[in-house]
Amino acid sequence: MKSLSQRILDVIDDLTRSERRLAELLLQDPDTLVLLTASELSAKASVSKATTARFFRRLGYPSSKTAQKEARQAIEAPRGRPKLDDRRFVATNISQHLATEMQNLVRSVEQMRSDDLNAATTLLARGEKLWIVGFGDNYPLAHFARSLLIRVKPDIRMIPIGGFSVPEEFASIRDTDVVVALGVGRKSRGLRSIMRSAKAAGAGVVLITDQSTPAAIDAATITLRCRTQGSSVFDSVVAPVSLLSFLCSSLALRIGQDAIDRLQFIDRIHEEWGEVLTEDL
After folding, report:
1. Which neighbouring-strand residues pair with 132?
2. 204-210 and 156-159 as β-strands: parallel, antiparallel, unpaired?
3. The model's pTM
């Protein structure tokens, strides 16, 4: 049985503007469906009751009550390991792949609020230390983020570090710090634990995740969601990578001259050490 979030993602490209407001509300916090009546849900999304009824029929539910019943059952049922979706094991070509990636970028940008992006940039600029956290499949994203951030800010920490215990590294967290948590696709308990502990310590937390992830109000200061739908077997990371590049560039511009000075100093070091290859390979 498909989850509510997966049903929404399957049809999100075909939704009307009003229906998309409902979709965004439920993607941000799927538990809202259980906590509110259909009328309250309509009011919170600023749409009509007819739009709400049509929205749930489009998702394949006979009514909103059926959707609420399934949502309650999903909450009460034990959570197992997610199964592979057989429908994704289909042949594709490069044109279809490109079209899917373009949609991932466009839909991600459409659904992000500019004030959230500005708030995230401000938070990163104010952070004394930045902590980049990414476990499992998110580790390469975390490594990419650190490789950009270290060029414009001097104190960038990364978790996990091979061979070192996470709690010992995390013990240096301060209320002046900011954590960038990468939670695209599968999430580990370690990620949520770090986010909660960071917030409890007074640090800011920017969570970058996918659209199907429930809201992490108790653990994240700001949540930025990316569309990661793949055209075939694997999910896409194009939108998360693009978002990280945008945030790091915005941060450099927000910092200003200090970031420019650091970039130029790094370039001089490369030149002095002879690490920049000037001739053709």
Report:
1. 158, 180
2. unpaired
3. 0.73
